[in-house]
Amino acid sequence: MNASHSPEPKDRPADRPARLTVGVLGAGRVGPALAAALQLAGHRPVAVSAVSDASVRRAAALLPDVPIVEPAQVMEAAELVLLTVPDDTLPGLVEGLAETGAVRPGQLLVHTSGRYGARVLDSALRAGALPLALHPVMTFTGTPVDVQRLAGCSFGVTAPEELRLAAQALVIEMGGEPEWIAEENRPLYHAALALGANHLVTLVTQAMELLRAAGVEAPDRMLGPLLGAALDNSLRSGDAALTGPVARGDAGTVAAHVAELREHAPQTVAGYLAMARATADRALAHGMLKPELAEDLLEVLADGGRP
């Protein structure tokens, strides 16, 4: 099993390839996929750290024959290290690596957190590392399909000026498109992505549950074309794509919706009301919702959906 191997020694210059050796700290859903993409570009994954059974399986599936070792060995073996750990873990990990002397001068340290820019790597920078923030704007499954999905994927990139070309090259080699994000804008950038992608999953799964409760046997097949068209229209047309009873000002229909939700799925009421209020505000601001209809609608929403 690959977990029993050790990283290949790096003290024989003749053995080192022209491309970069790559290590992964944190074999979640992201790290192995990015390392596999870099491997396709000619780089050489040499070591990965994985703790849970699931992370070991992911590493084995995406990086077969790459040794699973301790973090210190990953740092020792690789010229480019992917720090693919949860956002809240990243600052402490970087500090620990710098304090223990695990960081080497000239070593590329790449984190994939959307929340942070390159500044979170400052302690490693002081130790001589080259810091890059490369955040792939995609949801990951932890399977080989993720590598294919990187083609055309945007990456939120933050890097020191002197490393911009290196950051751009790595993103392009993984099949992605670099989008430069200023350090101070990273939290807002990440919030926007979470609002769009994470909340979309919640909305879609709630809609499927409600359709099943209404007797629909294949809610995914019913929703697929509708949601695909809605997404395409919204990306193309923005607020002009708004439709439905809220945008039309059908206060009675909205009240009926909420009444049904209170009876059959009370856990969805708060989300429905919040999104309806936001939709009404946007429709009113863009002249789609007539003011005389907006008054009754907003009154219903303010009253928790009760007519």
Strands, helices and their partners?
Layout: E1 21-25, H1 31-40, E2 44-49, H2 53-62, H3 71-77, E3 80-83, H4 90-99, E4 108-111, H5 122-126, E5 130-136, H6 145-149, E6 154-158, H7 164-173, E7 177-180, H8 186-213, H9 219-237, H10 245-248, H11 251-264, H12 269-285, H13 291-302
Parallel strand pairs: 1-2, 1-3, 3-4, 4-5, 6-7
Antiparallel strand pairs: 5-6
What would you say the CATH architecture of the largest domain is? 3-Layer(aba) Sandwich
What is the strand tally?
Answer: 7
Overall number of domains: 2
- Largest sheet geometry: 7 strands, mixed
Distance between the termini: 65 Å
Summed up, the helix count is 13
CATH-defined topology of the largest domain: Rossmann fold
In terms of DSSP E residues, the strand content is 5-15%
Order of helices and strands: EHEHHEHEHEHEHEHHHHHH
Strand order of the largest sheet: 2-1-3-4-5-6-7
Helix content: 40-55%
The parts where pLDDT drops under 50 for at least 5 residues are: 1-18
Structure characterization notes:
- 49% of the residues lie in helices and 11% in strands.
- With 307 residues, it is of the alpha/beta class.
- A 7-stranded mixed beta sheet has the order 2-1-3-4-5-6-7.
- Helix 11 packs parallel to helix 13 (291-302).
- It is elongated, with a radius of gyration of 24 Å.
- The termini are far apart.
